[in-house]
Design a protein that fits this description.
Distance between the termini: 79 Å
Oligomer: single chain
Number of helices: 2
Order of helices and strands: HH
Number of strands: 0
Length: 57
């Protein structure tokens, strides 16, 4: 006789569902430009501040 515990089954299915949702989310937002442009502008601002600090030294 096989015994199936509800908690074990729930954990198993929630793990599979979580993995599937993470993969789908990753595929949808793989190369979004909005995040990249914000990061690029922050890096450019940081580089300008660093250049100014080096000039002052």
């Amino acid at each position: 006789m096989t015994y199936f515990d509800f908690g074990i089954n729930l954990a198993f299915w929630l793990t599979l569902l979580s993995t599937l949702l993470c993969v789908i989310y990753g595929l949808i937002y793989w190369n979004k430009d909005a995040h990249d442009s914000a990061t690029t502008s922050n890096i450019e601002q940081w580089a300008q501040v660093e250049d100014q600090i080096e000039k002052d030294l």
